[in-house]
């Protein structure tokens, strides 16, 4: 079986920023976080949720091989 899983994770980080006011501080932190790998600080998980949203069968059903010397028609049992 193969499962599609959705993970929601909430993390918290504390950061000291030099800024002129609160709005400027928030802006600087948001700009840093918008860059890939912008902040390599210490993160703390505060919540996690894992939900399985879908499953699918992955087993492959192979057809029966017909022999050259066998009958040209299959019985209902063999066809099933």
Quick synopsis:
The chain is an alpha+beta fold. About 20% of the residues lie in helices and about 30% in strands.
Question: What would your notes on this structure say?
Answer:
- There is one protein chain.
- The chain is α+β, with helices and mostly antiparallel strands and 80 residues long.
- The chain is built from two helices and two strands.
- The chain is rod-shaped and about 90 Å long.
Task: List the topology elements.
Elements: E1 2-12, H1 22-34, E2 44-56, H2 76-79
Antiparallel strand pairs: 1-2
User: Which strand order spans the largest sheet, edge to edge or round the barrel?
Assistant: 1-2
Order of helices and strands: EHEH
- Count of helices? 2
The stretches of 5 or more residues where confidence is low (pLDDT under 50) are none
User: What would you report as the Rg, rounded to the nearest angstrom?
Assistant: 29 Å
Helix/strand/pairing category: alpha+beta
- The 3D shape can be described as rod-shaped
Strand residue percentage: 25-35%
- Could you give a short account of the major beta sheet? 2 strands, antiparallel
Helical residues, percent: 10-25%
Mean pLDDT: 85
